[in-house]
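Structure (tokenized):
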């Protein structure tokens, strides 16, 4: 190490490679979103974002070259490949909230890197974060028709559907694994364990489905009441509604004259005015009203069941210690898969997330197994 060289300088090539990997991941993911996005305007935005990320990747390749470091042959990592697969099968809207969350958390990653600041990368990354935030959530500075189109499509997803899917399966898996281990700890016969596991699956899935149905249905009823109130206010006090819209658009970044002109144009048509007011003030798509309670209930039932079945499956064909070991093995694989799923929206590594999920699941199972053993011995003795 030379007199002027610091430990940070020596580690620069590794940092450059990490930055390069991140840019390759982002560019690949934006290219996929552009491919699957049916709205050509949004697809064009994703293509431009991908082009900027590819330029950033080239910037870090040049940094590696100037330091005499080898340029690695990198490919997209697990997270962007998994998100890309989900986008191709379920649409861009399914993964957009997750991508937006990751982009917001990473928007300041280059702020303390001198080379990145010299290249203007922090400004561009923050710009990307603002663009994704505008697409995925409440928008700023867009005209009413654009706001309605974008917000309506993405809010219809009901938030982060990917997160809900992963956590729903996790609820079923951990709760039923704990139940099965508790009964197994009491040394019940395999048939009783199987019946208990299936009963726990059905009871838990029905409970989750009913809770989701009540939640979504209550939300729909509230939205319907609020929309009726907006319709009445639009009829009786249109000037007040116009002033509210003006303030909303000023908050989104428009000047007062621009906000006033836009509000007056939207309020010229009552149907358009009501649609815009509902979306802007309530954050609700009047066509969706928060989604279907039956779809939400069915989805919740299936996700819970998908996780809860793993600890039970071996007891259909095996008994004794063999069934218990296979149940633990199946649960371990499912917990690891769920952990990998959580890494998609937490930003943590797959290994860390999977290991953490397995440890948490086994801790819960160990507690119920111990309680079952104590109760079994107490009753049997």
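Design, position by position:
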């Amino acid at each position: 190490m030379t007199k002027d060289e610091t430990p940070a300088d020596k580690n620069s090539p590794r940092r450059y490679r990490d930055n390069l990997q991140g840019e390759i991941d982002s560019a690949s993911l934006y290219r996929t979103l552009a491919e699957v996005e049916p709205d050509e305007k949004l697809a064009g935005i994703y293509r431009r974002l991908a082009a900027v990320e590819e330029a950033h990747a080239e910037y870090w390749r040049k940094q590696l070259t100037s330091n005499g470091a080898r340029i690695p042959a990198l490919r997209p990592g697990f997270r962007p490949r998994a998100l890309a697969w989900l986008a191709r099968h379920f649409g861009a809207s399914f993964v957009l909230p997750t991508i937006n969350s990751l982009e917001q958390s990473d928007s300041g990653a280059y702020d303390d890197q001198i080379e990145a600041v010299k290249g203007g990368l922090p400004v561009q990354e923050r710009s990307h974060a603002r663009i994704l935030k505008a697409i995925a959530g409440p928008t700023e500075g867009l005209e009413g028709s654009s706001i309605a189109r974008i917000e309506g499509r993405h809010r219809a997803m009901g938030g982060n559907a990917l997160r809900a899917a992963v956590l729903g399966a996790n609820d079923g898996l951990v709760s039923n694994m704990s139940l099965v281990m508790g009964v197994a700890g009491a040394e019940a016969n395999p048939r009783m364990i199987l019946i208990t596991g299936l009963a726990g699956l059905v009871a838990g899935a029905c409970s989750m489905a009913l809770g989701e149905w009540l939640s979504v249905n209550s939300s729909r009823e509230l939205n319907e009441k609020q929309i009726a109130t907006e319709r009445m206010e639009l009829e009786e006090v249109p000037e007040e509604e116009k002033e509210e819209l003006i303030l909303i658009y000023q908050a989104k970044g428009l000047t007062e004259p621009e906000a006033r002109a836009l509000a007056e144009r939207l309020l010229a048509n009552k149907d358009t005015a009501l649609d815009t007011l509902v979306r802007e003030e309530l954050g609700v798509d009047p066509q969706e009203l928060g989604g279907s309670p039956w779809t939400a209930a069915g989805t919740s039932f299936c996700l819970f069941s998908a996780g809860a079945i793993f600890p039970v499956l071996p007891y259909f064909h095996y008994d004794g210690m063999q069934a218990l070991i296979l149940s633990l093995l199946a649960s371990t694989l499912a917990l690891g898969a769920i952990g990998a799923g959580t890494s998609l929206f937490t930003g943590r590594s797959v290994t860390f997330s999977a290991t953490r999920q397995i440890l948490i699941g086994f801790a819960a199972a160990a507690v119920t197994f111990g309680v079952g053993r104590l109760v079994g011995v107490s009753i049997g003795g």
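Reviewer-requested clarification: Residues 20 and 57 are 5 Å apart (CA to CA). Confidence is low (pLDDT under 50) at residues 1-8, 138-159.
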